[in-house]
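Example 3.2
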Amino acid sequence: MMFLLTGLGTVVLSLLSVVWTFPLPVVSNIPTHGPYHVGTKQYNVSILDRSYPVLHVIWPDNGPHGMKFPLLSYAHGAAGGDWYSIEGYYSLWTQMASHGFVIVAPASCSLGCKNGGWSTYYLEQLKCIDWARNQSEKDPILSMIDWSMGVGIVGHSMGGQATVRSAKETYTRPRNITAAVLHHPEVDNGGRNISVPLAAFTGTTDHICPAEETFKIWDPAPPPKLIRNEIGWDHLEPVLTPPIENPMLATYTAAWFKIYINGDTDVYYSLIYNTSNPDSLCNSAPMANCTSVK
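Structure, written as tokens:
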């Protein structure tokens, strides 16, 4: 199903949570936040779709002077943009940024773009990268982006579908995009065209974009790749706050980017690939499927 109203509002979702069941908390030694405090800022960006041309930036604001961080571009789900619904992603974004990333996220195209509907939405994700690069010598926040490293793309629901489309070599090569992550993506037939390491996160109770749709993207994608289908998580896993949001989703998303952008071979690598580590992704909770292919 295409439309998830991430902007239904906290009250409605709180009422729904009374009758919904959520996965039981898993005891873990992994903190849900990284070592950095984060700041947030909104920018009016004229190159974004006219539906709501605003971009959100989340960045580590307490690193040593002059320290730089890789860039991630996050695409929201359907009805997850505009001035109100986009706030639903802030827990996830602050958790991800705290691991040492600058995140840019368009609030445009909440119900599809004015110019092209959902078929052009992936361009918003790419425009954010291009805009950040063009502004990085002028803006003190964007000057913290380390362009010598790769760039990551990530999205939820329709933003996951957008990420699949942004992951074509036509778009990744000129922007030095080196990794992609999907959070409960809308189905797309472009898996075989993905040109960078791919991690896909889904759950057994997602009835909006069911796990089998994520597998249709993941199966033809080239390695290295990872898929996690965790028991109990539904389509809202990335949004709002626990118990609706899964705080560990940010940690494992950050770990994937740390490996394939930063080149980590230690702590974050172990969180993905060390099968003897009880806190590694596939050991961290009950799974219907958790598979990595290097």
